[in-house]
């Protein structure tokens, strides 16, 4: 059949109608993104929270505060500017919540021996002093302390910016210009503890142990041979269950390390033998005495991108120095890594390890690692 000229206007109207419907469909799809938007953000323990936004909540309401489950380390609100942006609430409130948790656990008599430490020279050795700006910083290894030391070195006037500080100088306490609180008189110590701004940083206890193991017994980037040549063989001899292989050549395994750390009484002789080198796996309570010294801020490694600016501002030094840039996501809790390292380790050894670090988990509101213990 050959279409007559009268058919042409009809076909043209048909295609115009199809095109108009297509545009309407595209517009509706675009608008729907703003009318009902939902997304999922992971927390550091592998769980996720679902947020749902509607157009009315963007235009007529302030975004509500969402506190993730225990252990996620920070509360969030959804941005009123863009529903795809997650923003932290006032970080002062976050810190207050952390200090409340710390105070509550410190008063718990059932785990008193895991949370309280005498403020003796060993603890004072961990605290670095910036008299010029009245700041005390307690060092907790394997949570990014190198960068905070750089901040204090700049504040003390040794260098003009953190980027200019040589890495080998940071931990050279004879040359880095960072006095320790232990170097002062009793009167000077008490005066500073009572009046200076005090802070320290924590991290999930088990992930911190993995970091210590890798840094000291696997990679050893600062070339500290005593970890591999003295400490590792001593742990292997006492805690390796099978000696069919050559213990010295195989080196320390993570399961040996866990067994040593979880041995409540047997490790004490080795700890005395190892001296101050054990600071990399001591508890936060043993290092900084958080139940016996009133700290102003407790930062979390998992949220360091947000904690660092807050600490600088709270200490009154935000305009004087900046914390080195942090690659996005690098400090977040990695459950997959924790599961991988603990796979094959007996429940008995993991429970003993948790019993030792239970105080740290509780003091700083880190979730009990049920996925390892059950």
From TrEMBL:
The record's section on Pfam families has: Sulfotransfer_2
Q: Which InterPro entries does its entry note?
A: Carb_sulfotrans_8-10, Sulfotransferase
UniProt superkingdom = Eukaryota
EC numbers, comma separated? 2.8.2.-
For this chain, one GO molecular function annotation is: sulfotransferase activity
Determine if Iron is one of this entry's keywords: no
**Cellular component per GO?**
Golgi membrane
List keywords of the entry alphabetically.
Answer: Carbohydrate metabolism, Glycoprotein, Golgi apparatus, Membrane, Signal-anchor, Transferase, Transmembrane, Transmembrane helix
| Broad EC category | transferase
What gene name does this entry carry? Answer: chst10
Biological process (GO), any one: carbohydrate biosynthetic process
What name does this protein carry? Answer: Carbohydrate sulfotransferase
């Amino acid at each position: 059949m050959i279409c007559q000229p009268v058919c042409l206007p009809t076909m043209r109207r048909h295609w115009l109608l199809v095109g108009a419907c297509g545009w309407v469909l595209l517009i509706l799809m675009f608008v729907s993104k703003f009318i009902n938007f939902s997304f999922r953000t992971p927390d550091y323990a592998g769980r996720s929270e679902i947020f749902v936004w509607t157009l009315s909540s963007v235009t007529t309401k302030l975004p509500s505060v969402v506190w993730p489950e225990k252990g996620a380390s920070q509360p969030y609100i959804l941005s009123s500017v863009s529903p795809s942006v997650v923003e932290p609430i006032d970080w002062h409130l976050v810190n207050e919540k952390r200090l409340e948790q710390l105070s509550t656990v410190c008063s718990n008599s059932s785990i008193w021996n895991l949370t309280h430490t005498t403020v003796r020279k060993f603890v004072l050795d961990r605290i670095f002093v910036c008299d010029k700006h009245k700041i005390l910083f307690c060092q907790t290894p394997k949570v990014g302390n190198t960068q905070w030391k750089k901040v204090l070195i700049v504040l003390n006037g040794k260098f003009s910016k953190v980027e200019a500080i040589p890495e080998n100088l940071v931990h050279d306490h004879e040359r880095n210009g960072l006095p320790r609180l232990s170097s002062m008189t009793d009167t000077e110590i008490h005066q500073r503890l009572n009046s200076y701004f005090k802070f320290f940083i924590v991290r999930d206890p088990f992930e911190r142990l993995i970091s210590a193991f890798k840094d000291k017994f696997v990679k050893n980037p600062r070339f500290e041979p005593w970890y591999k040549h003295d400490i590792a063989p001593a742990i292997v001899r006492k805690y390796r269950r099978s000696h069919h292989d050559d213990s010295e050549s195989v080196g320390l395994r993570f399961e040996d390390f866990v067994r040593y750390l979880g041995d409540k009484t047997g490790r004490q002789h080795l700890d005395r033998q190892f001296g101050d080198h054990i600071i990399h796996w001591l508890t936060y309570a043993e290092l900084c005495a958080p139940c016996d010294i009133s700290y102003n801020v407790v930062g979390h490694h998992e949220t360091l991108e947000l904690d660092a600016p807050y600490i600088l501002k709270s200490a009154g030094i935000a305009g004087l120095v900046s914390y080195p840039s942090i690659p996005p996501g690098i400090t977040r809790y990695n459950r997959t890594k924790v599961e991988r390292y603990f796979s094959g380790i007996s429940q008995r050894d993991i429970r003993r390890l948790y019993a030792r670090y239970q105080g740290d988990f509780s003091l700083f509101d880190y979730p009990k690692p049920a996925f390892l213990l059950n």
